[in-house]
Automatic annotation (TrEMBL):
The lineage of its organism: Eukaryota, Metazoa, Cnidaria, Hydrozoa, Hydroidolina. Its EC number is 2.4.2.28. SUPFAM superfamilies: Purine and uridine phosphorylases. It comes from the Eukaryota. Pathway: Amino-acid biosynthesis; L-methionine biosynthesis via salvage pathway; S-methyl-5-thio-alpha-D-ribose 1-phosphate from S-methyl-5'-thioadenosine (phosphorylase route): step 1/1. It is found in: Cytoplasm; Nucleus. Belongs to the PNP/MTAP phosphorylase family. MTAP subfamily. Keywords: Cytoplasm, Glycosyltransferase, Nucleus, Purine salvage, Transferase. This is S-methyl-5'-thioadenosine phosphorylase. The keyword tRNA-binding does not apply. Residues 5-248 form the Nucleoside phosphorylase domain.
Length: 272
């Protein structure tokens, strides 16, 4: 059975290294520069785990400035087969309520100034041009683990969610928010893209647990504030942490040989 290693990319309020029982911090470099934070390396119920804080240790890195390529490269280099990401997000629908957890399954990309591939065709990048399939951006098998883990923990959850990723750092206007609803978006966030795409490019099973912190700007007379996002994340962080702990244990119990093989094949076959 292949060894698994789980990378956790901790989003706003969910980047607590206390998740890991035994831990050491390591400083790594990549061909793309430094990742957002030191890598916290440890083990949970016998499963090796590596944690990165997406926005840096003191939430000092804005969404457009996150070195997504360095983060994913660092996790690949250290041997991660899986990534569990956490994301704060706004809700575009009444039934995605504050504090709900969502196991994302689709995204709509509205970002426009991020390095979004390891295969740019430039000399220092990976060789060739890769067109990675994105019909199912998230790993279905890892999504199922997160769904099972969330059910086991007994939390309100949506098994699917289509997230619109905006460039930020500003939040959306009311007009944009209403347009995203018309497009079929369920949620709005700032960091899933290009993270999920880069993970797929290098054959890592990536899945995300998102948490609703606000109703964005579509409700007349109401809009999201940073204060609200921080408050909800603070109040609900334990939920997401419990799901992660349960999911990591479940991942450690499964045989991932076929999935790892499939991921690598998908990555290789996508290069022209
Ligand atoms: N993260 C949390 N809430 C958000 C919102 N409304 N828009 C974009 N990103 C968010």
């Amino acid at each position: 059975m292949s060894k698994v290693k789980v990378g956790i990319i901790g989003g706003t309020g969910l980047d607590d290294p206390q998740l890991l029982l035994s831990k050491t911090e390591i400083d790594v470099d990549t061909p793309y520069g430094k990742p957002s934070s030191l890598l916290t390396v440890g083990e949970l119920n016998g499963v090796p785990v590596v944690l990165i804080s997406r926005h840096g240790k003191n939430h000092s890195i804005a969404p457009s400035q996150i070195n997504y390529r360095a983060n994913i490269w660092a996790l690949k280099e250290i041997g991660c087969t899986h990534i569990l990401a956490t994301n704060a997000c706004g809700s575009l629908k009444e039934n995605y309520k504050i504090g709900d957890l969502i196991i994302l399954d689709q995204f709509i990309d509205r970002t426009f100034k991020r390095e979004n591939t390891f295969y740019s065709g430039l000399p220092n990048d990976l060789p060739g041009v890769q067109h990675i399939p994105m019909g199912e951006p998230f790993c279905e098998y890892t999504r199922n683990v997160l769904i099972e883990a969330t059910k086991t923990c007994g939390f309100d959850m949506h098994e699917r969610g289509n997230i619109v990723i905006i460039e930020g750092p500003r939040f959306s206007t009311r007009a944009e928010s209403k347009m995203f609803q018309l497009w079929g978006g369920d949620l709005v966030g700032m960091t899933t893209v290009p993270e999920v795409c880069l993970a797929k490019e290098v054959g890592i099973s990536y899945s995300s647990i998102a948490m609703v912190t606000d109703y964005d700007a579509w409700r007349d007379g109401d809009h999201v504030t940073v204060e609200q996002v921080a408050k909800v994340m603070h109040e609900n962080a334990e939920k997401a942490k419990n799901v992660l702990l349960t999911a990591i244990t479940l991942i450690g119990k499964q045989n991932w040989d076929e999935v790892i093989e499939k991921n690598n094949l998908c990555s290789r076959m996508a290069v022209m």
